Amino acid sequence: MEPNATSTKFPSSPAEIEAAIARAPGRDRPVTAKEEAAWASGVRVNGGGYQAVKAALAEKRKPGQRGPQLAPTKQLVSVRYSPEVLEFFRATGAGWQSRMDEALKQWVAMLGEARGRTAEVA
Fold it and tell me: Is residue 1 part of a domain?
């Protein structure tokens, strides 16, 4: 743990200990919204000590980190499009790649119907 990680001193007298207990949430005082927000980034470990806490923290996702995909449905490819096509979809704003994917799915389905087969597009 980093030195001086906390901003408050540890209570040293019985009176300071009693005052800290009185300020702590529990049956006598409900948890505030600020306290809940601060605890949201923590992990809960029932027993196990330091090693269990360390393992739980290692398993927790970091901010901005993607979780595992349950069923990857898309494949990464390199494709070249005409500037007009890219300009059109980029002009639609954020999420243009998804809209382009949707337009291509619709085209594939329409082409499949025209050829008399059903296209399986998810």
Answer: no
